[in-house]
Write a structure and sequence with these properties.
Largest sheet: 6 strands, parallel
Helix content: 25-40%
Radius of gyration: 19 Å
Number of helices: 11
CATH class: Alpha Beta
CATH topology: Rossmann fold
Number of domains: 1
Structural class: alpha/beta
Order of helices and strands: EHEHHEHHEHEEHEEEHEEHEHH
Strand order of the largest sheet: 2-1-3-4-5-10
Length: 273
């Protein structure tokens, strides 16, 4: 596979991990900020085959939709008459939470961020058509990255923050769907390799009970931890994403044992550093 890839959002959790993963595949990969992208000439952009946007901003996440805050739309407009395909990050939260959500299931965005993401998907799709790949991603597990500009916190970010306080929440009845950052990067790479477009759920596709996941992440912690029962009002939007369309396309392994192994490695790196 010979492709020139541009990743926008070089300091973020997803962008930095994607850059490191794809670069190791001996592909020509460049990582920049959204500010530098705005300065790129049309001639410079025409040299890339794939553009992956991993950047966003606080106004887009927290406020009602305004096109000036939509980086996906900004990029799409700039490359409209060029060759590159665009990959954008969306979220599983645009769906109504339930078990086994497919790409055709009901969307029900509740917060400004999810409403904005759904609008971005539609606007960018009209501009780029089959030059667009939309990834509706489940919760990503990875080692926390120190970044003062971090906008989104992953489940593992929250876990490692809470564990410093000496307690964790007891989530015995709650489950969600997860994917490790390593597996996420592998999936994105394979989707690019297969020249994919359209909408894909990116997840493990299985129920993962939060207590089980927490036990994996806490495995190498030798400090005594108190378990606190969660309140009834706690956000328990249990869900799994149906990833059959994705798995049929890229034909790769994606199983619970791989996720467990990644969580144990994260635990070892964090608690034995």
């Amino acid at each position: 596979m010979k492709k020139n890839i541009l990743i926008i959002g070089k300091k973020g959790f997803i962008g930095s991990n994607l850059f490191n993963f794809i670069r190791k595949k001996n592909l020509h990969t460049k990582s920049i900020s959204i500010e530098n992208f705005k300065k790129f000439s049309i001639i410079s952009l025409s040299k890339f085959d794939i553009i992956i946007n991993c950047s966003t901003n606080n106004n887009y996440v927290n406020n009602k939709y305004q096109s000036k805050n939509d980086y996906d739309l900004l990029i799409a407009k700039k490359i409209k008459n060029l060759y590159p395909k665009l990959v954008i990050m969306s979220t599983r939260k645009i769906y109504k939470p339930k078990f086994n959500i497919s790409e055709k299931d009901q969307v029900k965005p509740k917060c400004n961020y999810t409403k904005n993401k759904l609008k971005s998907e539609k606007l960018v799709s009209k501009i780029l058509n089959n030059r667009l790949l939309i990834l509706r991603v489940a919760n990503i597990i990875g080692l926390p990255k120190k970044n003062k500009r971090k906008i989104h916190k992953t489940f593992s970010d929250i876990f490692f923050d809470e564990i410093k306080k000496g307690f964790i929440y007891n989530n015995k009845n709650n489950y969600k769907d997860f994917i490790s950052i390593k597996k996420f990067c592998e999936i994105v790479f394979n989707l690019i390799k297969y020249n994919t477009h359209g909408i894909y759920n990116v997840s493990l596709g299985k129920k993962i009970y939060l207590n089980e996941l927490i036990n994996w992440l806490n495995f190498y912690n030798r400090r005594k931890i108190t378990k606190i029962d969660i309140k009834k009002s706690f956000n328990n939007d249990n869900f799994t994403l149906n990833n059959k369309r994705l798995m049929n396309k890229i034909k790769t392994s994606n199983n619970l044992n791989e996720l467990k192994k990644e969580c144990l490695q994260l635990s070892k790196k964090y608690f034995r550093k």
